[in-house]
Amino acid sequence: MAALGRNGGAEAGGQAERTRLSWRRTTLAFALTLGLAVRGLVMADSGVLVGGLAVACGGLLWAGFLVLAQRRIVALSRTGGHGVSASTVLVAAGAVGLLAVAAGVLAVVTLG
Description:
Layout: H1 14-43, H2 48-79, H3 86-111
Protein name: DUF202 domain-containing protein
Organism: Streptomyces zhaozhouensis
GO cellular component, one term: endomembrane system
């Protein structure tokens, strides 16, 4: 439930703060997924080269996503949380999709 301001409306800064926190949670979840991929690669007996490349690509994607999230957090503090550009959404979705592809490659390498 939203906190109410003086005039009975929703608190102005609440939405921007929730959005900022969600970007940070998503970045943390991304890092955790990458960490689990590294753990799976270490535990695997074969396909270390291909798996290593998949993890390296995932690491680059995470770094790019981290920069994107930080830029969005800074933009939220400047604009007060008004809208998000379509390019930001597409880049974030693309990074998550490419991480899923890298995870699929890693799964095939470690299990197959």
